[in-house]
Amino acid sequence: MYLLGYDIGSSSVKASLVNAETGKCVSSAFFPKTEAAIIAVKPGWAEQNPESWWENLKLATQAVMNESGANAGEIKAIGISYQMHGLVCVDKDQNVLRPSIIWCDQRSGQQVDEMLKLLPYEKWLEITANPPIAAWTAAKLLWVKRHEPEVYAKCRHILLPKDYIRYVLTGQFATDVSDASGMQMLDVKNRCWSDEVLEALGVQKDMLGKVYESQEVTGRLLQSVAEKCGLTADVKVVAGSADNAGAAIGTGVVRDGDAFTSIGTSALVYTHMDHYTPIPEGSLHLCCSCVPGCWFTMGGPQAAGLSLEWFKDNYCQDYKEKA
């Protein structure tokens, strides 16, 4: 019996096949093999096309299945992770309305000021556990509402990137508590959408997916999707997680006070908490953990590997050619 994990990353879509009995990874693949295009139309902007995630996911799935030699019937469940905060707008016919504004986009600074006029700073901390910031989903959504009203008018569903992939896989609109924490619309202490915040933002609750704990089953593969990926429609798709919340499970950081550091496209320090504990002045991000009834803090620079990649691409052509 095997479990299939996906990570919808900034640079590629990764797939890993894990033996459910031993916990050993038996095969893994990522697509594209070169860096995925992050669209930066203007300084501080960062977008990606959601359709490309789906195309690369199919390729990665086919690759791990071929490498492992596993039979389709042996794959029992799928989990998905993503790097949090991105925005995917979908219309009533489930068509993507514009490129996804991803986690590192900084265009919505003015919308942060608007959010602080809608509710006081202390209220944002009380409900969402975090102060409004440009990188999180709510500010991105308000930017679309103000600058692309024709897109917002057609928007029927607001999805995080991993939850767009979930919809493609299952036809279900859903999310998990860890990823939803970064949308600035979740009551983080009570692990549910906040009616007060949604009313202030002018967002209808039915535009958002149902909130699950990370390990809960949200649906099964659509038959058409199963055929394209070489799987069966019996495969369960669980809620999944934000990338670092999932990494905490993988590294065993699941007890109060345990911590790890992650250095990837961005970098951070992550600390697990068994009990909800407000962070003074919102100096660290506070989110729901993958462990039911638990939370975590995180903080760090937005660009780590991303800065190194920029330096490599702009100043290290000779080293790239030699490599």
Structural features, described:
The longest helix is centred in the N-terminal third of the chain and has 19 residues, at 50-68. Helix content is 33%, strand content 24%. The model has no long low-confidence stretch (mean pLDDT 94). The protein is built from twelve helices and 19 strands. The chain is of the alpha+beta class. Helix 2 (109-118) crosses helix 4 (137-147).
Features:
323 residues, alpha+beta, 7-stranded mixed sheet, 4-stranded antiparallel sheet, 12 helices, 19 strands
Give the fraction of residues assigned to helices: 25-40%
Can you summarize the main beta sheet? 7 strands, mixed
Radius of gyration: 19 Å
Shape: globular
Strand content: 15-25%
Decide which structural class fits the backbone. alpha+beta
Model regions low in confidence, pLDDT < 50 over at least 5 residues: none
Instruction: Specify the number of helices.
Output: 12
Average of per-residue pLDDT values: 94
Total number of strands: 19
In angstroms, what separates the terminal alpha carbons? 39 Å
Question: Which helices and strands appear, and what pairs or packs with what?
Answer:
Blueprint: E1 2-8, E2 13-19, E3 25-31, E4 47-48, H1 50-68, E5 75-82, E6 88-90, E7 100-101, H2 109-118, H3 121-128, H4 137-147, H5 149-154, E8 157-159, H6 161-170, E9 174-176, H7 177-180, E10 186-187, E11 192-193, H8 195-201, E12 210-212, E13 217-220, H9 223-229, E14 236-238, E15 241-242, H10 243-250, E16 259-263, E17 267-273, E18 285-288, E19 295-299, H11 305-315, H12 317-322
Parallel strand pairs: 1-5, 5-14, 5-15, 9-12
Antiparallel strand pairs: 1-2, 2-3, 4-7, 6-8, 10-11, 13-14, 16-17, 17-19, 18-19
Helix pairs in contact: 2-4
